[in-house]
């Protein structure tokens, strides 16, 4: 598993985040399928935070058990993983923008808190 770099700042632009997402997805089809980039670009900035897995619906999207198993094996050998992306502003409940398989694998490994990008709240 490749070691994923995280921006020097906890606040990143949507362009930076979209570029990072494109860099670690397995195929370009993963990116163009659905509205992933549009969901990232709807906010100007994103903030890297620690996020509680229990606040998420891990079955929100279709899960491929083989991909989850692959992430479990990779994470056992190297605890570095790309942060997930959570939209905790647009809907009544937080939704997973990117990282459903990573979240499911981390959950199965017993993680409660994960690194996640959430829309930056400029009021803070």
Tell me the layout of helices and strands.
Elements: E1 11-13, H1 14-24, H2 28-32, H3 36-41, E2 45-52, H4 65-77, E3 84-87, E4 95-98, H5 100-108, E5 113-119
Parallel strand pairs: 3-5
Antiparallel strand pairs: 1-2, 2-5, 3-4
Helix pairs in contact: 4-5
Question: What's a quick, concise take on this entry?
Answer:
This protein is α+β, with helices and mostly antiparallel strands. It has 5 helices and 5 strands.
Description:
It is built from 5 helices and 5 strands. It is an alpha+beta fold and 124 residues long. Strands 1-2-5-3-4 form a 5-stranded mixed sheet. The longest helix has 13 residues.
- Radius of gyration from CA coordinates: 14 Å
Q: Under the CATH scheme, which architecture would be assigned?
A: Alpha-Beta Complex
Mean pLDDT: 85
- Specify the CATH class: Alpha Beta
């Amino acid at each position: 598993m490749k070691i994923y770099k995280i921006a020097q700042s906890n606040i990143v632009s949507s362009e930076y985040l979209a570029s990072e997402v494109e860099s670690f997805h397995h195929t370009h089809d993963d990116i163009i399928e659905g509205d992933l980039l549009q969901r990232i670009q709807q906010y100007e900035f994103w903030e890297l935070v620690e996020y509680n897995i229990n606040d998420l619906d891990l079955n929100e999207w279709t899960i491929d058990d083989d991909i989850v198993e692959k992430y479990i094996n990779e994470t056992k050998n190297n605890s570095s993983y790309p942060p997930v992306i959570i939209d905790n502003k647009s809907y009544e409940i937080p939704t997973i923008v990117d990282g459903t398989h990573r979240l499911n694998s981390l959950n199965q490994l017993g993680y409660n808190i994960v690194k996640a990008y959430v829309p930056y709240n400029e009021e803070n």
